[in-house]
## 1
Amino acid sequence: AMNDLADVAAEFRARHGRRLRVATKYTHLTTDFFGRHGADDCELVQSFGATEGAPGSGAAEAIVDITSTGATLAANNLRIPEDGVILKSEAQLAASLKADWSDKARAAAKFILTRLEAYQIAKKQIKITLRSSPGMLSPKLKPQKEIKELKKEYDAKLVDMFTGSSDQGSSYTFVLPTNQQAAFMDDMISNQLFEIGEVSKPDFLYFQRCEMLERLLGRLV
């Protein structure tokens, strides 16, 4: 915890005869944050490159840096103290409603927003494909009935369907909320509606409608 940093820094100085070094690009934020936690006996080292590599190279004993998933920190055997987050931030996309939105500008907005919305949708969805081998009658789903019930109960959207002859087999592909996966598959297994079930995580899920784009275009003057 940050409350222990002052003691660690003092012990480090007593043992090594120098102050504990902290590599960072954010000297002002770090100075203020450390000061609030009484960790003044540290030496800030200006970082101009990959800050996470400073401890491994011997340039510093600790770092202050930005992180998203924490994977890079873990790869360098670093961890964040429980109360060691200085601030949280996020990127925001802003559009001027009074700008001259030419056809080219609108096309660019469509390209960006459809991709962004597809990414955000995919983060909360999974894709499940139910397959049957040749000669097997299932999946025995009927679009007019069972698929509508799946949509109502699990918010499962049918995105692809192949119903071949008895020697070709069949397949149904759905996308549905991640938290519905277990209940959906339990239902399919209990009713013997497939032979093989494949679950995957899509990176992007595009639909014909893009609500982000519609909201923007609806507000343009």
Note: Strands lie at 20-24, 42-46, 62-64, 125-132, 157-163, 170-177, 196-200.
## 2
Amino acid sequence: KCSNSTLTVQGKVNSIVLDQCTKVGIQFTSVVSLVEFINCRGMKVQVLDHVPTIQIEKTDGCHVYLSKTSLDTQFITSKSS
């Protein structure tokens, strides 16, 4: 659980999962597998390099900013607005 925070993940990681977060900004360079948001509110995400999949579940208000190298990112959503 995070709230009113900004996270920066540098380098390449396997995956990122955030659960029950509120008003969190996350910036990351590269993810091998996926980035997943579950039961979150007011998220802001910035991809600096590449991520193959972003999964958004039961999340309200998620803004995703993609780099030119990540325009082919696949989005999977359910019960989100």
Note: Residues 17 and 32 are 13 Å apart (CA to CA).
## 3
Amino acid sequence: MSIFEDMFKGGNIVTGLAIGIGAAVIAPAITPVLRPVAKSLLKAGLIAYDQGRVALAELNEQTGDILAEARHELSEAGQAARDAAAETPERTTH
């Protein structure tokens, strides 16, 4: 790590040049190896993203169904309470 720290501090220009030239020489040699790896990683990421979207859509649909059922049950319970209140006469206290 001290090599990179020295290079960024401007301490040793020869080391910086050597790293730059080395990277320029090595990059063409490792690019054919890294390209398929990068493509595979991107494909895996796309597949995971698509599967996540599908799972989220299914979860959204299930949540919406449960919410609709709960609202329906609440409206039925409210209607039953209103019907029961209408059927029972009011009590008067003497």
Note: The radius of gyration is 35 Å.
